[in-house]
Prior knowledge:
Shape: elongated
Structural class: mainly alpha
Largest sheet: none
Distance between the termini: 57 Å
Order of helices and strands: HHHHHHHHHHHHHHHHHHHHHH
Number of helices: 22
Number of domains: 2
Number of strands: 0
Amino acid sequence: xxxxxxxxxxxxxxxxxxxxxxxxxxxxxxxxxxxxxxxxxxxxxxxxxxxxxxxxxxxxxxxxxxxxxxxxxxxxxxxxxxxxxxxxxxxxxxxxxxxxxxxxxxxxxxxxxxxxxxxxxxxxxxxxxxxxxxxxxxxxxxxxxxxxxxxxxxxxxxxxxxxxxxxxxxxxxxxxxxxxxxxxxxxxxxxxxxxxxxxxxxxxxxxxxxxxxxxxxxxxxxxxxxxxxxxxxxxxxxxxxxxxxxxxxxxxxxxxxxxxxxxxxxxxxxxxxxxxxxxxxxxxxxxxxxxxxxxxxxxxxxxxxxxxxxxxxxxxxxxxxx
Length: 322
């Protein structure tokens, strides 16, 4: 792990790292891939940099070479870990290789799609969503549909209860393409049965902080890309005003915060503006959103004032007087 981190930080030569990896036995490589420290240094940046990607490719390519030459339980563990981490760089070729190899060695591909990292309990879909690798997201969900395990993969949870859609709405995501990929797949599935059952299920999933995906996005609305994510989530339910109203007034179980409370608590007003612009389509909905209170009896305006957010307070009055 020290060598991997040094390579990632630019402290060692990548060619030298490749030679080191080639000398590692399978069990050591399994530990390197499974070690939560592997993910820790990847998480230092909001997006993978080129050097991090190259380190991962070296590691995964070494796993490929080992998998070609060796079989057994240890290597199956290696294949699972390598497949999961292929989601971080969105490498569909590497993912496909391990899917086929795992299946050829008495495993089934659906098992691999639901495989998780040891500590954070993330699947390949969680990984792809957290890095906004939309092509990988589409690939995984399309395959999940063919293998009749779409629900299981889509609603699998990590160690803090996040579904893939939560991960696509996290603070590290700089645009909404992964969230859009998930919502597009859900829309196609719902169209087949003529309702929005799957969409409602996805939108009202709660993590351990009792946040829905919209609440999760609003909680991080000061970060780049959050506004685009909030717009994407709202656009998926725009045609159903009752659904939209329920989604925008859904509160967490700890403080009674609605999405607007979270958005108004942030230093930048863009997330709150998106919610208010949507609410303006329906005056009654605007009244509902702005009058709902948390467990302390504060509506979003009072909460913004309490936290000293003048831009959000001004934005509220601009919208209300339209």
